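Morning run. Coffee first, then this:
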Amino acid sequence: MVTHSNEFDVATSVLVPVLVGGERVVWGECPEFPGVFGEDRIRSCTDLTTVVQSQGGVVARLVERLRLDVPGFRLLAREREAGTLAGGVEWVRDKHFGLWRQYDEPWTACDYGQHVPPAVLTGVPRQRRGGVRSLPEQASPATGAYGYRRAA
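And here it is:
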């Protein structure tokens, strides 16, 4: 277990596939969830992995209870003050059975040797960023041809 030299807080958010302009799909905020889904203090790489993994399961259950018609979602963890991406996980709904499953292992910045966000490490004054509007488009089972949310 790698322990971080400086503790930091992460804020998690939920993104879903959103159809924009009738053709293009981007990852966007889900209006049924708050902009910040959760906030946690990170002391080690294990903490960060646990937060991303456990909150993904919680979101899957909430999506079911809210009866949202989405093919998948991403849960992202960002360093709370600067907005630096710290980790994430993607979940998809099985087309045949309708059950939610984690698409792949959660990933964290720790996996790439970045154990403390640069703003925390250097003590540089932090500036808040706005919420995530879209992410670079990537191949994903959740970006199939059905179940998109319409952009507002």
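Strands lie at 3-20, 24-29, 38-44, 72-79, 85-93, 100-102, 107-108, 149-150. Good start to the day.
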